[in-house]
Design goal:
2 copies of one chain form a homodimer. Chain A has 158 residues and is of the alpha+beta class. Chain A has a 4-stranded antiparallel beta sheet with strand order 3-4-2-5. In chain A, helix 2 crosses helix 3. Helices cover 34% and strands 28% of the residues of chain A. The radius of gyration of chain A is 20 Å and the shape is elongated. In chain A, a hairpin with a 4-residue loop joins strand 3 and strand 4. The interface between A and B is large, with 66 and 67 residues. Chain A binds a DNA duplex (17 and 17 nucleotides) through helix 3.
Chain lengths: 158, 158
DNA sequence: CCTGAAAACCATGCATG
DNA sequence: CATGCATGGTTTTCAGG
């Protein structure tokens, strides 16, 4: 199933709700120039068809004690084994993202922990849980992240 | 300024609003066991002190035509130059995140584009805008991303 | 700092162009 | 598929503990 959008009004709704998902339907409706009920119906369709897959608050990692973040590239020790590493690691909640990549490693993770010792423990857990070697790159400073997608009209092929 | 939280009620609010920022104050208030007004006041304080820095809708990249994502490591051609690359690249809205890292490269970017040709153009733009060399790792599959932070009580040092 | 209540506002469903 | 209205729920503010 490949979710898809109808027109530029949907695109505007997605752009607005992407930036400010707590806006009221009334606010959205005047920003996109449509009645409240119409906006509500479209928003619900965008949610149920999987264009909008969820909502998040963005939390300052410092404020919740996750001061250290890192990228961890992982490679299965046994190259014949199937691609089960992501499932084997899913329970480790320090892992924020997991992608398979075209490069030296098989996967890359983005993780957040409190201390270097927590990072050490996490790496050990990852190695044990998924039987992989790891290569860790520590983040020194985050300039920006979670930037909302810029959705120019016409940038979405049907 | 280092934002910080008072107690476990704030932590619960952050955890809940992180997972579901469109929940009503009434819903939050029964999840954390406090009156609606108290929850509202705390939520506003968490926002104004920078613990909650914003809200986002999570959009299926496929649905908006961003089918290709990648990590781009960049290194300034002139190692003496100050750390201006992040500002020089900020206008490129295909860039979702920018971190400085401890590793071979100086920075790592996470980017989303529509096509390989767009990626090619983006890499050229990055090289020109910031006078950097690049090393690109294409994402083949995203297993998960944007996972909400798990906030166990007591995991946030004061 | 929390509570509770009054007023303004918003979401929701349905009937209608 | 969009609109406008009625209604029940939600947010907001403020007085009081």
């Amino acid at each position: 199933m490949l979710p898809c959008m109808d027109d530029s009004v949907d695109l505007s709704i997605v752009a607005e709700v992407s930036r400010d998902p707590r806006a009221t339907l009334a606010q959205l409706s005047e920003r996109v120039g449509l009645g409240v009920s119409a906006v509500q119906a479209r928003l619900r369709r965008l949610e149920s068809t999987g264009v909008i897959t969820g909502y998040r608050a963005i939390i300052d990692p410092q404020a919740v004690g996750r001061t250290l973040s890192a990228f961890i590239e992982i490679t299965p020790l046994d190259p014949r084994q199937p691609d089960v590493a992501p499932e084997l690691l899913e329970h480790l909640d320090a892992i924020e993202a997991c992608h398979s990549i075209a490069g030296d490693a098989a996967y890359i993770l983005f993780v957040r922990v409190a201390t270097p010792r927590d990072l050490e423990a996490l790496i050990r857990d990852i190695r044990l849980a998924a039987s992989v070697s790891t290569r860790t790159t520590v983040v020194l400073q985050t300039f920006y992240e979670n930037r909302p997608m810029a959705l120019a009209p016409g940038s979405a092929p049907g």
